[in-house]
């Protein structure tokens, strides 16, 4: 960030808004302003009168820090996170089915009745 050229007088600000007390802040737009007070007034005039919002944040773009390339490489190294997601356990259904099928042995299957559904009772 910060590669954008300005005239030296204006600075780039990012505007975030929150629509409800329980909601999250979302980025809305960028604007050029000479200082943070003017940026806040411009954000209110351009956004708050059009949309219902509870709160807004106006942040100078230069104050937002992004990840450096070497930091991204470190995050990419940690790619095996399936254990944190429920989709990572999808193989268990297949394993459980195999386990259940192994429990039925040949004697038990042959002891079932003629209809093949209910087991015979041997006393």
TrEMBL record:
It holds the Pfam family PaaB. It comes from the Bacteria. InterPro entries: PaaB, PaaB_sf. It comes from Siminovitchia fordii. This is 1,2-phenylacetyl-CoA epoxidase subunit B.
